[in-house]
Amino acid sequence: MDLTYTAEDEAFRAELRAWLHDHLTGEFAAAKGLGGPGREHEAFDVRVAWDRHLAAHGWTCLDWPKEYGGRAAGVAQQVIFHEEYARANAPIRVSHIGEQLLGPTLIAFGTEEQKQRFLPGIRDVTELWCQGYSEPDAGSDLANVKTTAVLAEPQSEAQGGGEWILNGQKVWTSLAHLADWCFVVARTDPGAPKHRGLSYLLVPMKQPGVEVRPILQLTKTSEFNEVYFTDARTAATNVVGGVHDGWRVAMATLGFERGVSTLGQQIGFRRELDGVIALARQTTAIDDPLILDRLTRAALGLDVLRLNALRSMTGLADGTPGAEASIAKLAWARWHRDLGELAMDVLGAAGTVTGADYDLDEWQRLWLFSRADTIYGGSDEIQRNVIAERVLGLPKEPRA
Fold first, then answer.
1. Residue 123 in 3-state DSSP?
2. Residue 146 to residue 138: CA distance in whole angstroms
3. Coiled coil where (predicted)?
């Protein structure tokens, strides 16, 4: 992994730094540092406008191929983008799910027709996406999904090749109440073994038969949702990677989520850690050797997360992440949960008291929300199994 910056890379840095300085003004400047997990409600409309402003000036989808609107940026320039974006304290992006999860998946597995239809809306932030994976009985065990999709024959020439009709329930669907589309893992062959017979479908959210119910969280926010499909429809052509090939495609999407995109996620982590350090100085908790040791370990741990993400980015043979991406999920989830606990210990007794009407401060919100980090997106237990079996080659856990 060579992170030596060339003259071209440094010119890219200078261009980006100058652009951020000139454009983070007005309402965009007022939204600096806002957003992120547990805080997605903050200045959402302004952050959408900011993402579209980035897109209009060519600062979205940097790693995508040029033929699909990206810059084909290498690892070094992607790292520079995240470094400068963090340094500018720019608003947390709202288009993460489309740009960094679905976009790379479509580029790797989609048909040319699908790429031409969906990639421009992701790049320009004119269509927002959510992820339809988890169900009440299929959280970390994604292959256990029960949402079904049946291919209906076309009733007229206007329907082309027909439509998929979906029925079932998804849960913990981030930003589903704001999304235009959802990529859904559904069972299309109920007679096949559970890891087979799944398909990866692109489903419009604004239609009859799709009901979204926000879930009230411990933080009093509702970025997660339940989604109910009742005879919801999508075109027959909106299947990615082929019918019944959904497991392979879904695993690739999770790899993108746990690999490259964590560099962007670490923008928020760095801000939070800096804030906890400042809080420790303010409360004098930093004078406690044990607290100082934990702060030091947190800083070193964040560097490890960054280096592991960079290793993942430089180690992709064909652009598709492998099971090693589970290492990133396991590492950042535990790091962030521990940071929430550290923040509460730095606060001391004051951290146990909320404001009027359960008004949480940022550290209480961090602690409460980070309790879920080791569960959503694949629990720690599942990630350890993946690493043991698919990375280390250890014997598989006995299946009943």
1. helix
2. 8
3. none
Q: How confident is the model at residue 317, as a pLDDT?
A: 47
Tokens (6 digits) for 45: 């409309």
For 4, counting Cβ atoms within 10 Å of its Cβ (0-12 exposed, 13-18 middle, 19+ buried), the class is exposed
Q: Which residues contact 192 (CB under 8 A, 6 or more apart)?
A: 244
Q: What is the dihedral of CA 56, 60, 64, 70, to 10 degrees?
A: 20
Does 257 qualify as catalytic in the annotation?
yes
Q: Which two tokens stand for residue 156?
A: 């007229």
Per-residue pLDDT of 303-350, as tens digits, reads 998 888 777 766 554 555 566 678 888 899 999 999 999 999 999 999
Q: Which two tokens stand for residue 174?
A: 């981030």
Average pLDDT over the chain, rounded to whole? 90
pLDDT per residue over 145-172, tens digit each? 999 999 997 766 665 679 999 999 999 9
Q: Helices H, strands E: what count in the chain?
A: 13, 8
**Contact between 235 and 197 (Cβ < 8 Å):** no
Q: pLDDT tens-digit profile of 33-85?
A: 898 878 888 999 999 999 999 999 999 999 999 999 999 998 888 888 988 99
Euclidean distance between the first and the last CA atom of the chain, given in angstroms as a whole number: 42
Spatial neighbors of 326 by CB under 8 A, at least 6 apart, are 258, 378, 383, 386, 387, 390, 391
Helix segments in 38-111, DSSP class H = 44-56, 75-87, 96, 103-109
pLDDT at residue 316 in the model:
54
Unique residue bearing structure tokens 């010119």? 11
Determine the average pLDDT of the residues in 214-238. Answer: 94
Q: Go through the domains of the chain in sequence order and give each one's CATH number.
A: 7-94 (1.10.540.10), 129-244 (2.40.110.10), 259-391 (1.20.140.10)
125 contacts: CB under 8 Å, gap ≥ 6: 48, 51, 52, 54, 55, 60, 94, 95, 98
Annotated active-site residue in 84, 163, 257, 272: 257
Interatomic CA distance for residues 274 and 50, integer angstroms: 24
Q: Residue 255 has which token pair?
A: 């790899």
